[in-house]
Amino acid sequence: MNREFYAENRKTLYRSVEPGSLVILFSGRAPRKTSDEDYPYFTNRNFLYLTGIEQANTVFTALVGDDECQEKLYILPPDFLKERWTGRRIKEQEAQDISGITEYGNVEQFEEELGVLLRSGNVKQVYLDFDEAFRQDGSDAFRMAAKIQENWPYIQLKDIHMQLRRQRTIKKPCEIEAMKKAATITKAGIEAMMRASKPGMYEYQYKAEFDYTLAQYGVLAPGFPSIISAGDNNFCIHYNGYRGQAKDGDMILNDVGAIWDYEINDVSRGWPCNGKFTERQKLLYQCAYNTSEHMFSILKPGIPMAEVDQIARRYNFEQLKAAGVCKSYDEIGTYMWHGGAHHVGFDVHDVVDVKGRMTEPGMVFCVDIGIYHEEWGIGFRVEDNCLITENGCQCITSGVPKKLEDIEAFMGR
Fold it and tell me: Rounded mean pLDDT of the chain?
């Protein structure tokens, strides 16, 4: 992403608010882990979407007027001793090159300057990012709202969160290119696991193969915690124990994704650890594969987004019924445990706005077909990323081995 990307995101945001509005967003901070250690820092995704700045304790403000907007980024001041211990702090010119923001301040003076601004009479309302997912954690936005209500009760508080969701729903060309790059890295990581796969291998060894491959591309952490499991552990949808051992004949389930330029992939594949599907594994895998291929053949603009999951479930039911697994649609919940579509982007379950919307060009979401047959001890999912185009759709993760025959051939080399 370049600074034009972030600047355009901000301009779109400003068009959604009234003159006399002050927009405030926070980069966040790492929570405490132990008495002398924090958890790894992770930048607030909406803050990142607007600025491109990855630094804790940073604040962005924008005073929107009739014809102009005064943007300001409050950053940590230089501190030789602290930087020696915790790393170099971003400087104004560097931040400007990334974000396109030209005015800067010391974050330690932010609240003092905010008070002056709110007392000036130039601000009628303050927009904050009220993401309900962070209310219980007492995020900076909710803390700031409480402070404004207490000290400046005449200032109206408004929520910018839904507008940011709307903007993030449609991906720009540079975002799609970053996703495609991430897809090539994800492919390499999954293929590395397939090459190494064998009975007796531990889940953490599969994970090590994936992580090592990503590191060769400069990706030091995946886009989300990898789900890699074997055998009975496949029946925990968001499993992350990595302690299980693959027994001969077990299916390996992986739900993984690389990240590139902040854009995330989410890909799932299932394969037998010994490289050869049993007859029952073939039967179920083919049902999931057929359903996935069907979805990519019909998805196009104009389909109610809320119906995508239902279309996948009904088609998969017909596959399972033909295979003799299901008799009635009422039974589908026994074998399909989760939804079949979620958007991806800056978050793996991207924060978007699709309520009541049709599929549109530029949307990117997962087609995620999972089958879990506990009686047979077989659980896996087949998941790819779908880009809606002007006339149809494109699978941007299609390079990862997917056909049953292709998986066996790849693992048999």
Answer: 96
Q: Measuring CA to CA, how many Å separate 3 from each of 8, 53, 404? A: 8, 10, 43
Q: pLDDT value at position 133? A: 79
pLDDT tier for residue 135 given thresholds of 50, 70 and 90: confident
Q: 26: which DSSP letter?
A: E
Q: How far apart are CA 166 and CA 2, in angstroms?
A: 21
pLDDT digits (tens, 9 = 90+) for 240-256: 999 999 999 999 999 99
The residue to which tokens 């609240």 are assigned: 111
Helices 110-119 and 140-151, packing angle to 10 deg:
40
Residue that the structure tokens 């027994």 belong to: 247
End-to-end CA separation in angstroms for the chain: 38
Query: CB of 214 within 8 A of CB of 185?
Result: yes
Q: pLDDT for 292-334, tens place per residue?
A: 999 999 999 999 999 999 999 999 999 999 999 999 999 999 9
Compute the distance between CA of residue 60 and CA of residue 127 in angstroms, rounded to an integer: 12
Phi, psi (deg, nearest 5) at residue 337: -100, -10
Q: How far apart are CA 120 and CA 111, in angstroms?
A: 14
The H-assigned helical ranges of 103-159 are 110-119, 140-151
H helix intervals, 227-382: 279-298, 305-322, 332-335
Contacts of 357 by beta carbon, 8 Å cutoff, 6+ apart: 169, 304, 305
pLDDT of residue 39 exceeding 80:
yes
Q: Give the phi and the psi of residue 391 in degrees, each rounded to 5.
A: -120, -5
Distance CA 78, CA 103 (A): 16
Q: Report helix, strand or coil for 129.
A: coil
- HSE-CB for 177 with a 13 A CA cutoff: 5
pTM of the model: 0.94
